[in-house]
Amino acid sequence: MFFRHVASAVGGYFLMPTRPMETIAKAQVLLLAAGAASIVTAVAIDKSSPGAMASADFACFTGVSDFIIGYGMDDAGKHRGLPYIAKAI
Questions:
Q1: CA distance 12 to 45
Q2: DSSP character for 62?
Q3: Domain ranges of the chain
Q4: pLDDT tens digit string along 2-15?
Q5: pLDDT score of 78
Q6: Largest CB tally within 10 Å, which of 46, 48, 77, 82?
Q7: Angle CA(66)–CA(68)–CA(69) in degrees, nearest 5?
Q8: Neighbouring residues of 17: CB distance < 8 A, sequence distance ≥ 6
Q9: Cα 67 off chain centre by
Q10: 34 and 6 Cβ atoms separated by less than 8 Å
Q11: Class of the 2-87 domain?
Q12: Distance CA 28, CA 9 (A)
């Protein structure tokens, strides 16, 4: 859905909720090619590792190495709808 609106990136502001940093990296390339002046990214949990394709500019939580569920993050389709973020056990 997001990628349909890339052509209108010039002078625009976008909020793109997404999980994988690979998706953010791809979106950054497309938005810059479409004329975006700059891009700022934010995620709930930044689990970036050294050498990652991209990293977020802002994150609510960093340095998390546990498997996390809730708020759209799931464990094989389970627990995606939790109204909180939790460590899967």
A1: 25
A2: E
A3: 2-87
A4: 455 555 666 666 66
A5: 83
A6: 46
A7: 160
A8: 72
A9: 16
A10: yes
A11: alpha beta
A12: 11
Tokens coding 30: 């497309």
Residues with Cβ within 8 Å of residue 38, at least 6 apart in sequence = none
Question: From CA 10, how far away is CA 35, in angstroms rounded?
Answer: 5
Residue 79: both structure tokens together: 């627990």
Would strands 42-46 and 58-62 be described as parallel, antiparallel, or unpaired?
Answer: parallel
**How much is the pLDDT for 61?**
83
Residues in the chain: 89
| pLDDT exceeds 60 at position 89 | yes
Q: How far is CA 28 from CA 6, 25, 59, 71, in A?
A: 10, 5, 17, 24
Distance CA 32, CA 13 (A): 12
